[in-house]
Amino acid sequence: MADADRLRDFEELFLGQIEAKARGLTGRSGVADRVYFEPTREGPDAVRAELGRLRVYDRDAMDRVAGTRSIEMRFQRKLLGLIPRTVSLVRVRTLMPIEAMIRGEEPKPATRADVLVALAHYELIPTRLRPTGVILASPTGFTEEAQNLVESTNHLSLVLIGGRADGGWDINKPKRLKGTKWEKLFELETQPERLKRLLYHLDQAGVEVDSRGLSVSELSQRLGLERAETERLVRQACNVRPRLMTVSHNGETHLARSPLAEEGDSMSWWSRIRKLLGFKPTVAERVRDLSAQRVRIEQQRVEYDSKIDRLEADERGALEQGAAAKSTAEKKQVAGRLMRLRRELQRHRAQAQLLTRQIDVIGTHIHHLTLKEQGRRLELPTSEELTREAAEAEQIMTEISANAELAGSIEVTGETLGMADEEAAIFAEFDEIAEGAPAAKKQAEARDAAPPEQIIERAGEAISGRSAENPPRTDDRSRARPEAS
User: What is the spatial distance between Cα 38 and Cα 436, in angstroms, rounded to a whole number?
Assistant: First the structure.
């Protein structure tokens, strides 16, 4: 049950965003005039059935797990402004890993069987009440087999929405919804949130971004977005972070990062005039050009590395095939192919080594230029300034110390001579009580530890002693009076 809170938060966030997007589809430019939300029973019934299958009969289990909420969205438009007509009926619910939550296991993506079981529930509803669209969400995503159901389900529009580890959404919707107004219902992520996710992935892949760069296709796959949307995000990222730059290589755009950011606007009119007039580029411009050159060389080395991997795999296969050959002819054939592979492999390794050395040279030059420029941009104080400021600081500290000592010696208090005598008398009283307390405590402990016989004997001795000191009175008043005759 460790992830139950996180899954419930996912459910609340998903349903809240769907309801907000559904309200945005109403109005003159929307798909309907109004939308009504009603809770449905398929969510609680599915969770209750799953708990019964797992033999969990705790009454509070339904409150602890997620997936108990499901809603129906009824989009209506009035005909001629008078008669309401239902435009679309959409059911929305989440598929939660109940078994994983109960057993404390790692949750897995929703499977094809989970989706089919959820859709089977709507087959039992009367025809007039059946939904025209079903939206299923899973915090752990969906398997590939489950995603294939989106296009194969024809009697209704099925949309599968999976949660991503980076906070985004994987949305699988049928092609017939693309280009329609219904697409706005599934825009659960704003543009700033997508840009934040892109910057998060760039920070996670910092080494790759600083060396070979990340292609737009690779970024699109990591973000789970279309290529056009990823290109827009890349342009926004370059505006937000000046060190980011795009490099084109073999028709593919790569996003890389320069060690230095251009001071001011790199595309200002003055920089363009300087470039047209042939002036020497600034250090930041040289670093960016060298970084772009390094990215291109890195991409070439990646291509050669992939070729080398394939040739090495072919070499290993040829060696195994030659070792298993039975005849001399077969061994000759394998040997000839192996010689060609090794020659080609040697050429590719030499080319990769050349590219590696070029990258080392460019990287060293970029490093030196970066150090020089950063040292120039940061104005440090001279030795004379440091000496002068240190002397002034020492003088101030000396004055403050002297003033603090003087203030401590002349501080005026409210204590008088009489108050000091009274306080000394109270202290003496405290000492007297403290000295007498141990003796009294020892006497009490000795008395408590003595046997009952000794206590009785001591009590008798005390009584007899008091009797000897104070003998009984024998005066006339103590004598008995004679009886009257």
Answer: 83
Q: Long-range contacts of range 335-344, CB-CB < 8 Å, 24 or more positions apart? A: 341/311, 341/314, 341/315, 342/315, 344/311
How far separated are the first and last CA of the chain, in Å rounded?
Answer: 106
276 in Cβ contact with 227 (< 8 Å) = no
Could you give the strand order of the β-sheet that contains 157-163, starting from the edge strand earlier in sequence?
34-39, 70-79, 83-94, 133-138, 157-163, 169-172
Backbone dihedral angles phi then psi of residue 481, each to the nearest 5 degrees: -75, 145
User: Rounded to a whole number, what is the largest CA-CA distance in the chain?
Assistant: 166
Whole-number Å distance between alpha carbons of 165 and 215: 21
- Angle between helix axes 328-377 and 283-324 (nearest 10 degrees) is 160
Whether the Cβ atoms of residue 113 and residue 145 lie closer than 8 Å to each other: no
CB count, 10 Å around CB of 209?
Answer: 20
Report d(CA 38, CA 68) in Å as an integer. Answer: 14
- The CA-based angle 198-363-271, given to 5 degrees, is 70
Structure-block tokens of residue 346? 């040697």
State the burial class of residue 201 (Cβ atoms within 10 Å of its Cβ: 0-12, 13-18, 19+): middle
Burial of 158 (C-beta count, 10 Å sphere; 0-12/13-18/19+): buried
CA separation, residue 392 to residues 58, 389, 396 (Å): 76, 5, 6
pLDDT of the chain along its 485 residues, tens only? 447 788 888 999 999 999 999 999 998 888 899 999 999 999 999 998 988 888 888 778 888 888 889 999 999 988 876 788 899 999 999 999 988 888 888 889 999 999 999 999 888 888 888 999 999 999 999 999 999 999 998 888 999 999 988 888 999 999 999 889 998 999 888 888 889 999 999 988 888 888 888 999 999 988 888 888 999 999 999 888 888 889 888 888 999 988 877 654 444 566 667 667 777 777 887 888 888 888 888 888 888 898 899 999 999 998 998 888 888 888 889 899 889 999 999 999 999 999 999 989 988 888 888 888 777 777 778 888 889 889 999 999 999 998 888 887 776 666 566 677 788 888 788 888 887 766 666 666 666 665 555 555 554 554 455 444 455 444 444 444 444 43
